Amino acid sequence: MELENIVANTVLLKAREGGGGKRKGRSKKWKEILRFPHISQCVELGKTIERDYASICEKQPIGRLLFRQYCEIKPNLQRCIQLLDAMEDYEVTPDEKRKSRGEQIIKTFLSKQLNIYIFVVPALTRAAHEYLSGAPFADYQNSMYFDRFLQWKMLERQPITKDTFRQYRVLGKGGFGEVCACQVRATGKMYACKKLEKKRIKKRKGESMALNEKQILEKVNSRFVVSLAYAYETKDALCLVLTIMNGGDLKFHIYNMGTPGFEKDRVQFYAAQICCGLEHLHRESIVYRDLKPENILLDDNGHIRISDLGLAIKVPDGENIRGRVGTVGYMAPEVINNEKYAMSPDWWGLGCLVYEMTAGRLPFRARKERVKREEVERRVQEEEEEYNDKFTEDAKAICRMLLTKDPKQRLGCNVDRAVGVKAHSFFKNINFKRMEAGIKHLPNFSPNPLSFSMDVLDIEQFSTVKGVNLDQTDNDFYSKFATGSVSIPWQNEMIETECFRDLNVFGPQGTRPPDLDCNQPPEPPRRSLLDRIFRSRCVETHEDQNDSFF
Questions:
Q1: How far is CA 165 from CA 162, 174, 212, 307, 393, in A?
Q2: Burial class (CB within 10 angstroms; exposed 0-12, middle 13-18, buried 19+) of 537
Q3: What's the 3-state SS for 194-217?
Q4: Do the beta carbons of residue 129 and residue 58 sit within 8 Å?
C-alpha cells in the first residue's frame, strides 16, 4: 500500500473516531457556528412558517422534542404524552407479549367505565393527537419552547458552503464526479459528499437527471434509503451530502467473501430491509427502477440502505409510466417490452436480489457468462429460473412469486402491495415493526469499514471537460439544486451528535434566557482576536492624530 493511501486512511479513521478529543470531531468554534439568533431576529420566520401540528410536533425531530418539553410542564398534557409513548411501545412489542402490554395500558390510562374489550391502537393514538393539535398546540405557539424551535429553524436555514465541511479522502466515483468523505465542522458528523461537476453535467445534458435525484432524495426519510442532508454548490461542482456507508456494497459481499451467496438468515435480513426501503419509496409514489447489488450499501454495523436514485421517478397519482431503463439482467419483462408500469419493476428486482444472494448468480445469467443483451432479455421474457439445493421451500416460493412475468400476478403488485410481500412465510422470523423502529434485528455480520475502501491511487481520476461554457441559464438551474440543509436529516444530526442537548438550555427554574427575551437587546456579534487587535490599533492611531492636531 502506498504511503499516500495509508495517510488518507489514517486521517479518515481519526475523523470517524471524533478526532480523539472531547469535542467528538466538532470544531473549536462549534458553539459560535451554532449560536442561536436573538428571538427578535426570528420575527419574520414566525410570520411565514407553516403552523401545522403534524409537521412541527410529529415529523420534525427537534420540533417533536420541544413540544414534548412544553407538555412536560403541564400535568394534563404530560399524561397525554405518556399515553402516546405507551402506544409507540405497544406497536413494537413482540406478538407474544402484546396482550399483557395492551391490558397494562388500558389499566393505566383508560377509565374502567369504558368497558373496552378490543384494544385499538390507531384510534387511541389518533384521539391523543387530535386533542394535542387543538388548544395545547395553540398555547404552545405562545411559549418559549416554540420560540426556541424558531431559533433552531433559523440555524437550519443558514447558508451551506464548502466551508461547512472538512473534506477527506476520495471514496469512489459517481457518474458526474468523485465521491469523498466529509465531516460537518459544527457537529463532527461524517457524510459522503457526491460531487457533480458542472461542466460534465452540461456536456452530458444531465441537468434534469441530477435535479430529479436531488428532489427525490430530499422527499424520502427512511433508515433503509440513503438520506440527503445538504445540497450546495462550489465554483465547479454541485454537491450532495449523503449518509456515509462504510461497509461496501452487496455485490462485493456476495462474490468476494468466500463461496458466492449467503446463508438463508442473511438473505432474509437484507431482503427484509430492502423491502422496507421499497415500501417507503412507494409510499411517496416513487419507483426505484435500478435494484441491483451494487446499489445496496452496508453501514458499519451491517445494516443496508438503497442508494443511487438517479433512475428513480415519481409516478403521478392514478397513472402509469413508461421507460426502458435499468440494468441488464435485473430489468422486469414489462420494462424490456417498453410497457406502462407503476411499482412492479421494483418487486421483480427484489426477486432477482433474493435469488442472487441465495444462489450466488443471477436468475437468467450465469456468473461471468459472456452473453449478448438480447439473449438475456429473451431469457427474462421466455424462460423460467432454475433452483438448486441452496434454496429452501420458502425461498423458492417467494422468488417464484416475485419473478412472475405478468406484473398483474406478481407478489407486491396487487392491493396488498408491500404488506403482502412482508406477510410471506419467507419473512416469518422478521418483526418488521421492530426493524423499522430500529429495534433489535442486529445482523449476524458486521463489516470492517476499511476493508472495503479502494486505494486512493486505484480510483481513476476524471479527465478535464473542455469546450463547455457556463452561463446564466446554468445559474438558474444551480439555484434550484443548491438549497442548503434538508430539515429532518439536519435536525436528526443535531440530536444524534448531542448538539441539541448541549445547546438547548433555558433559564433557571424554567425562565426565558436572554436570547429568548424580547425585552433584552441582542448581544453584539463576537469579533475575532485579529479583528479586536486591528480595531484597537485604529483607535490608538486616531487618538494620536487628534493629539498632534491640538
A1: 6, 20, 24, 22, 50
A2: exposed
A3: EEEEHHHHHHCCCHHHHHHHHHHH
A4: yes
pLDDT at 284 over 50: yes
CB 197 within 8 A of CB 189: no
Please tell me the pTM assigned to this model: 0.87
Q: Which three cell numbers stand for residue 355?
A: 435469488
Rg (CA), the chain: 27
Report which secondary-structure segment, H or E, holds 242. strand 237-243
Q: Nearest CA to 171 among 180, 182, 160, 159?
A: 180
Task: Report the distance separating Cα 199 and Cα 193, nearest Å.
Answer: 18
CA 395, distance to chain mean position in Å, is: 30
Query: Does pLDDT of 12 surpass 80?
Result: no
User: Which pLDDT tens digit goes with each residue over 46-77?
Assistant: 999 999 999 999 999 999 999 999 999 999 99
User: Looking at residue 446, what is its pLDDT?
Assistant: 76
- Cβ atoms 449, 271 nearer than 8 A: no
Determine the Cα–Cα distance for residues 116 and 399; give it in Å rounded to an integer. Answer: 43
Confidence of residue 407 (pLDDT cuts 50, 70, 90): very high
- Sorted by sequence, the CB contacts under 8 Å of residue 521 that are 6+ apart come out as 38
Residue 511 neighbours by CB distance under 10 Å: 10
Closest CA to 471 of 195, 202, 200, 161: 202
Contacts of 474 (CB under 8 A, 6+ apart): 198, 202
- Give tens-digit pLDDT for 305-333: 999 999 999 999 999 999 999 999 999 99
* Three-class secondary structure assignment of 303-326: CEEECCCCCCEECCCCCCECCCCC
Is 203 flagged in the annotation as binding?
yes
Axis crossing angle, helix 61-72 with helix 144-156, rounded to the nearest 10: 170
Q: Could you list the active site residues?
A: 290
| 200 class by beta-carbon count within 10 Å (0-12 exposed, 13-18 middle, 19+ buried) | buried
Q: What is the DSSP string of 144-172?
A: HHHHHHHHHHHHHTS---GGGEEEEEEEE
Single out the residue of 201, 206, 245 nearest to residue 227, CA to CA. 245
User: Which triple of cell numbers denotes residue 544?
Assistant: 494620536
